[in-house]
Write a structure and sequence with these properties.
Pfam family, one: VWA_3
Keywords: Membrane, Transmembrane, Transmembrane helix
Distance between the termini: 60 Å
Number of helices: 20
Mean pLDDT: 85
Low-confidence stretches: 1-69
Strand order of the largest sheet: 14-13-12-17-18-19
Shape: elongated
Number of strands: 19
Strand content: 15-25%
Protein name: Substrate-binding domain-containing protein
Organism: Actinoplanes hulinensis
Length: 572
């Protein structure tokens, strides 16, 4: 520090020997320097606390460390605030500014304490706030079902739609003429045209909760079969590089990026509230962001003002009145709801169930062998139309092939013996990395093409047991640390009609004999149609630590395959 920069309260430093000064002068200088250091440390501690809390108010009203009584009297700690407020992080600055206007003149201790908090965090807190401003009224519905009583006061404060956001450099990959869809995003990540996609935790954040609902609403519109729709939604989930990111942290990481390339491959496309996007764009960051609201499942954050049952309403009502529309619109919020949004379910449970499935999805680098029944019974028609079991499998299987993330190692066999000397099964897609080469094409593409051309053998028998034994034995040799291995088998019948036929007792004996606890290979078995031997499938699943799933109505095949895919991950 130069002489010119030295605080005015103290003389500039003396560059000679301290011994040149009289003893009283040295004592005064040491005491003055000590006071400055204490004050700077105290101020620095408060500043750090403010940054840590993301608020202009400290989390507590604790005073600084007291100075000796000879220099300054002790400061009485502030009492508990009269009103505690939890607000979604993006609207918290507006609520806090309104609360400041209610501070009594000359009073050191503020009567209102406002904290920024994601709604899921507030919901799980032991001490509930007196006032809650979540970023969706859906959280109030969930709170009510959890026996937490809040009543809304006045009209909804503000609105802000969820935008699919990304660096401008890749905006054209999913935004056309300022418009986009969730299905466009799914197609983009499935084809790897969009390199990276990220989302927020749906059990904690409004961005995550509403985005999961928007994805499911969009896929339900695009697919006539609910199972296919679920498979498409899970396709997006399986490709996310991060599914539990904090919305503010995502924008903070983006703001810290020094170049567009790293931003694209670190975060990529992610949902954000429009107000957050607008605030980022005003910041003049090096990486520019763009965004659009998906038209096939538009979801919107809304900000109710809710008062907890039993809380003092006087100060709460005054705070409500102090929050102005002008302040909200200047902060980037909308005053009215956006038309054309997806309707939310009537209950919190209906909203949370897919969110829990989404959050519980394990992004494992697992290994899987698909065993597909190609016996003659798969050519049977279902219902009164032209559809057959095989045609439904072609449709569902093509969607299922997109579910596996880029870390998956996979192979596929068909089983069905049409002649006396036919093998029990044939390898249709060699086992290897899903993005690796398989016959001159990417293995994922080979899987998709093979399933699309799937044609069962007429009059072929069903060597189910032999195929499962061989599949489990083959996968046991592939077991690697940190890469769980599973066998997924789909069949519409029971073992029989071939030279490989055996009793269930013999099958179970051979299955148990090959078991190796150090190299587990769970079997996930899907029984397809009313003739599937579910007891046999259940026994093989139980013996290997897997799961059996019944799809008695062949039209439910896609839903069963989605369940099998989730079960394969849960088994590990």
């Amino acid at each position: 520090m130069s002489d010119n920069e030295w605080p005015r309260e103290l003389p500039p430093p003396h560059h000679g020997d301290w011994g040149d000064e009289p003893p009283q002068a040295r004592s005064r200088m040491l005491l003055s320097a000590g006071l400055v250091i204490v004050v700077l440390l105290a101020a620095g501690g408060v500043a750090w606390q403010l940054m840590r809390n993301g608020s202009a108010q400290p989390a507590t009203q604790a005073s600084a460390a007291p100075l000796p009584s000879s220099t300054q009297p002790s400061v009485t700690p502030c009492p508990d605030p009269e009103l505690t407020v939890a607000a979604a992080p993006e609207i918290e600055p507006v609520i806090r500014a309104a609360a400041v206007t209610l501070n009594p003149p000359g009073q050191r201790c503020a009567p209102i304490l406002v904290r920024a908090e994601e709604p899921g965090v507030t919901l799980a807190a032991v001490d509930q706030p007196d006032v809650w401003v979540p970023s969706s009224s859906a959280w109030l519905r969930i709170a009510e079902e959890n026996k937490l009583a809040f009543r809304t006061s006045g009209a909804t404060l503000a609105y802000s739609p969820i935008m699919l956001t990304a660096p401008e450099a890749i905006g054209s990959l999913y935004i056309k003429d300022g418009k986009t869809t969730w299905n466009e995003l799914i197609e983009g990540v499935a084809s790897e045209r969009i390199p990276v996609a990220t989302m927020s935790d749906p059990l904690t954040t409004t961005t995550g909760l509403l985005s999961v609902h928007g994805v499911h609403a969009a896929t339900a519109l695009a697919a006539r079969d609910p199972g296919i729709a679920q498979l498409r939604a899970l396709t997006l989930r399986s490709r996310l590089t991060d599914a539990a990111a904090d919305p503010g942290s995502l924008l903070g990481r983006m703001a810290a990026q020094s170049d567009t390339t790293s931003a694209v491959y670190d975060i990529g496309v992610f949902p954000a509230i429009e107000q957050q996007l607008l605030a980022y764009q005003k910041g003049g960051h090096r990486v520019a962001l763009t965004g659009a609201a998906p038209s096939d499942g538009m979801v919107e954050a809304d900000y109710p003002y809710a008062i907890r049952k039993g809380a003092k309403t006087g100060l709460a009502d005054r705070l409500r009145a102090a929050i102005t529309k002008q302040a909200l619109t200047e902060a980037g919020f909308r005053a009215e709801p956006t038309a054309g949004g997806a309707r939310l379910p009537g209950t919190g449970k209906a909203l949370l169930d897919p969110a829990r499935q989404w959050a519980g999805f394990q992004s494992l680098a697992f290994q899987v062998l698909l065993l597909i029944d190609a016996s003659g019974s798969m050519n049977e028609k279902i219902g009164g139309g032209p559809a057959t079991k095989a045609s439904l499998l072609r449709e569902s299987g093509a969607s299922a092939a997109q579910l596996f993330n880029r870390d998956t190692t996979i192979g596929m066999w068909y089983f069905g013996a049409g002649a006396a000397n036919s093998p029990a099964h044939t390898e249709e897609v060699s086992f290897g990395p899903i993005n690796g080469d398989a016959g001159g094409k990417k293995r994922r593409d080979a899987l998709t093409e093979k399933i699309k051309t799937y044609r069962p053998q007429s009059n072929a028998g069903t060597p189910l047991y032999q195929t499962v034994l061989d599949g489990v034995a083959a996968m046991r040799e592939e077991v690697k640390s940190g890469r769980p291995s599973v066998v997924v088998v789909l069949t519409d019948g029971a073992d029989g009609g071939t030279r490989f036929a055996m009793s269930q007792q013999e099958f179970q004996k051979r299955l148990a004999a090959g078991r190796d606890p150090a190299r587990p290979v769970p079997v996930i078995a899907v029984g397809y149609g009313p003739d599937a031997n579910m007891p046999a499938l259940q026994s093989m699943a139980k013996a290997t630590g897997g799961q059996a799933i019944a799809a008695k109505n062949p039209a439910d095949l896609a839903s069963a395959m989605a369940k099998a895919f989730l079960a394969a991950r849960a088994a590990n």
